[in-house]
Write a structure and sequence with these properties.
The protein has about 160 residues and is of the alpha/beta class. The chain has helices at about 25-40, 60-85, 100-110, 130-135, 155-160, and strands at about 15-20, 40-50, 90-95, 115-120, 145-150. The protein has a single domain (about 10-160), classed as Rossmann fold (3-Layer(aba) Sandwich). Helix 2 links the parallel strand 2 and strand 3.
Length: about 160
């Protein structure tokens, strides 16, 4: 039997996780890593640096931007290391500047290999989170890939059992 040619192979599924400082983000990261591991896929991470609040002190704004970039690189590397420990595969990492929703949608449009967006819902009283609210509401027609919403209250064991 002949081996499959590259043309006939299924493309690698890429599970995108938006990195932030929320507690529930870790659940989305674990879920995406486990699903990617079990399906032969890969994880991509996106960290969006909020736009600077330019004022009259340009030198201070530049310093704030540099610090925000350094923090973004440190945070995405930290979570990238978690992905490697979970699935023994390096994630694709993206750092952008702007509004998170807009940058997320732009990345999905620019990177056709991204096949699933994984977000975890916030268990707090303020609702599921701004991205989930936007992407299941007003901006749902802008989303061109499946959105997997994972309950942010799941334990590691529960995530592992689901994936």
């Amino acid at each position: 039997m002949a081996a499959k040619s590259k043309k006939n192979e299924m493309p690698e599924r890429i599970f995108l996780v938006v990195i932030d400082k929320s507690e529930e983000m870790g659940v989305a990261l674990r879920f995406a890593s486990r699903r990617a591991q079990r399906t032969g896929g890969r994880v991509a991470l996106l960290y969006v640096i909020p736009p600077p609040d330019f004022g009259h002190w340009m030198a201070v704004d530049n310093l704030i931007e540099e610090e925000a970039r350094a923090e973004a690189e440190e945070l995405i590397q930290q979570y990238g290391d978690q992905v490697v420990s979970l699935m023994r595969k390096l994630p694709v990492m993206h750092i952008r500047e702007g509004e998170p929703r807009d940058e997320l949608l732009a990345l999905i449009e620019e990177e056709p290999d991204i096949s699933v967006l994984v977000l975890a819902s916030s268990p707090g009283p303020k609702g599921p989170g701004p991205l989930i609210t936007a992407l299941t509401g007003k901006f749902s027609s802008n989303l061109t890939i499946p959105l997997t919403i994972v309950p942010g209250t799941l334990s590691d064991e529960e995530v592992d059992a689901l994936t």
